[in-house]
Amino acid sequence: MTLIEPLPVVDTATHGVHRRPARRWWRRWTWSHRLVAGAFLLWFAAAPYFVPPSVFAGNWTAARWFDRISIVDPLAFAETVVASRHVTRQLVIGVVPTVAMAVLLGRLFCGWICPLGLVLEMAAAATRRLHPRRQAASPRASGRSPSHRWKYAVLAGCLAASALAATPFFTSLSPINLPFIWRADHAGLAALLLVGLIVLEWRYERIFCRSLCPLGALYSLLGRSAWLCVRIEGEERFRCRQCTRDCPMGIDVMTDHVLAGHDRVVDPECTRCGSCTDRCYGDLLRIGWRRRRSPSVEAGDQTPAAT
Amino acid sequence: MDRRSMLVALGVAAGGAWIEFARRASRDPFRLRPPGAASESDLLARCIRCGLCIRACPVDALRPVGLEAPHAVGSPYFTARSQPCTLCAGASDMACITACPTDALHPLARREEVAIGVAAIDESRCLPFRGVLCRACWRACPYSGKAITYDPRGRPRVMPSHCVGCGLCEYACLTDPPSIVVRAFEPPGDADAPPRPAPSSADRPTSATSDMTGTP
């Protein structure tokens, strides 16, 4: 007869939580957003060769379906309105889909559509394998990456530049479109731009997306109160740091959102890429719709639960 | 916003100022813009360099401007001698105008309202002025009889009020370099250039070298 109950064995890797394994067999959100961005890239690159322009023509700046439905990038819209001091009905109709996407779904473009985001993300993944000491992405607050507020200044500067030059500034020289646009007669500059950004990636992770891209800044501003978000559900919240570790935008998900008691990632710069969602050991994160009224979960007991 | 962000913003705005300065100082060649462009400055302000017009052109005439002109890079133009604008003859609408999402290429009520430029004849080269019968430009012109007319001696004359600037004459001209050349209305970079003449302006023929040479 035993007088002392054996202590429960707590698996330190998962802190005693046995809802699911530490990782699914594949990181589904991570690969989903990469595949969707890749599909966009393939479509825009290949469509000129087999799709007639009466059906579809376009790229990330503007697109046209069936000679009727046009879709216009919001920064191109803003810059051309500022440069020409004139708005046309067709222009407004064209920008509605992209603005609606940003307002409802947040900064989704950067994670799921942008070709530069895809290229930089793959470069970052390669960098991590080749340079093991850079395993952890640097969160913004660590001081190892430039301030994310720069891109809002770049946005203001681009709008001012467009007004001064009376021509859309960022849109003309767009590093998002230029390297990938059909019939780019300036292929040399495009290649130089891409190589330069990838080299920067070695030193600073996603510096362009975090600190320089005015389109990202605009999408962040539009998507401040988006419905689609990374939801945080659960009372047992841990310091395993898996969510912060991989966030490409450098958001400190663990400290600023999970442990702070929010019910979702409230940072407007979240691209809903799902990197944190895939890695959460506690199965707390999920990409979904925000609640109408968002009560904060109390950030109470943070000790691991005994089974 | 912190100081560094302000410096970044100032830097980008300075880039815009530099581009404006470059635009005013530039000695760009005259560029023939797609039909529907109201003026060079209006096109540059509204064009978002999406390339949809370039893609839509059925004769593949349009090309994007290169880096030699940073204020105009990516905007569409065509070279009449390589491939002129055929005004989408046979179609109900011009493809480039239909494709443009920002109305940088304004929809036009009639093809006659197209105002790309005006053709001008170099009389030192033009064959009829040297005694050889030639009607190549007249045959190519979609408005022959109105835009290009012939005097009793068989020498061509361009009527600027009817010439739309499509460049079919320049493409068809037998001499090399061509004796009839389309010129855009205003030099690029000149924001204070006079506006394009309305279709009802004076019916004076144009000539590159001199005034009317001895005809009544």
Task: Provide keyphrases for this structure.
heterodimer, A: 307 residues, mainly alpha, 3-stranded antiparallel β-sheet, two-stranded antiparallel sheet, 13 helices, 5 strands, 46% helix, 7% strand, disordered C terminus, B: 216 residues, alpha+beta, Alpha-Beta Plaits, two-stranded antiparallel ribbon, 6 helices, 6 strands, elongated
**In CATH, what is the class of chain B?**
Alpha Beta
Any idea what the shape of chain A is? globular
Question: How many beta-strand runs of chain B?
Answer: 6
Secondary-structure element order of chain B, as H and E?
Answer: HHHEEHEHEEHE
Topology of chain A as a string of helices (H) and strands (E): HEEEHHHHHHHHHEHHHE
User: Which sheet architecture does the biggest sheet of chain A show?
Assistant: 3 strands, antiparallel
Summing up helix and strand content along with how strands pair, one would put the structural category of chain A as mainly alpha
Please state the structural category of chain B: alpha+beta
Low-confidence stretches of chain B: 187-195, 198-205, 207-216
Spans of chain A of at least 5 consecutive residues whose pLDDT stays below 50 are 296-307
**How many E strands of chain A?**
5
Helix content of chain B: 10-25%
At the third CATH level, what is the topology name of chain B? Alpha-Beta Plaits
Strand content of chain B: 5-15%
Biggest sheet of chain B, open or closed, and with what strands and sense?
Answer: 2 strands, antiparallel
Strand content of chain A: 5-15%
* Biggest sheet, spatial arrangement of strands of chain A: 1-2-3
How would you describe this structure to a colleague?
The complex is a heterodimer of chains A (307) and B (216). Chain A is mainly α. Chain A has helices spanning 28-50, 74-84, 89-105, 108-112, 115-130, 150-165, 169-172, 187-203, 207-212, 214-222, 242-246, 253-258, 275-279; strands at residues 56-58, 62-65, 69-72, 228-232, 285-289. Chain A has a three-stranded antiparallel sheet. Chain A has a two-stranded antiparallel ribbon with strand order 4-5. The two termini of chain A are 23 Å apart. Chain B has 216 residues and is of the alpha+beta class. The radius of gyration of chain B is 20 Å and the shape is elongated. The N and C termini of chain B lie far apart (73 Å). In chain B, 44% of the residues are buried. Residues 187-195, 198-205 and 207-216 of chain B have low confidence and may be disordered.
